[in-house]
Amino acid sequence: AQACVTAVATSAATVPPAVVPPSTPSTQNLPKLTVVKKANKTRAAIGETVLFTIEIANVGNVRATGLRLED
Predict the structure, then answer these.
(1) What is the pTM of this model?
(2) Tens digit of pLDDT for each residue in 4-58?
(3) Using an 8 Å Cβ cutoff, are 37 and 70 in contact?
(4) Could you tell me which of 52, 23, 25 has the C-alpha nearest to residue 37?
(5) I need a surface site. Which of 6, 30, 50, 69 has the fewest CB within 10 A?
């Protein structure tokens, strides 16, 4: 028998406060995280091992700190 593999990943980050002068347009300095979780197979038999890779990238314009990933 085979089973479908479903995965969900979440992340949290501490966002430092942005200092924006009043004359500056409303562009915010924020981290922006992308999280991708991949399995090494799309189907697995009962008892078969499935390996997962989780990739986290900060594509924002400031450093992200205090990251915690729960899966």
Answers:
(1) 0.54
(2) 445 555 545 554 555 555 555 557 899 999 999 999 999 999 999 999 999 999 9
(3) no
(4) 52
(5) 6
Three-class SS of residue 68?
A: strand
Q: In terms of residues, how long is the chain?
A: 71
Choose among 66, 64, 55: nearest CA to 7. Answer: 55
Question: Which residue is it, tokens 């990739």?
Answer: 55
Residues 71, 16, 38, CA angle at the centre, nearest 5°?
25
Judge residue 47's burial from the number of C-beta atoms within 10 Å of its C-beta, 0-12 exposed, 13-18 middle, 19 or more buried. exposed
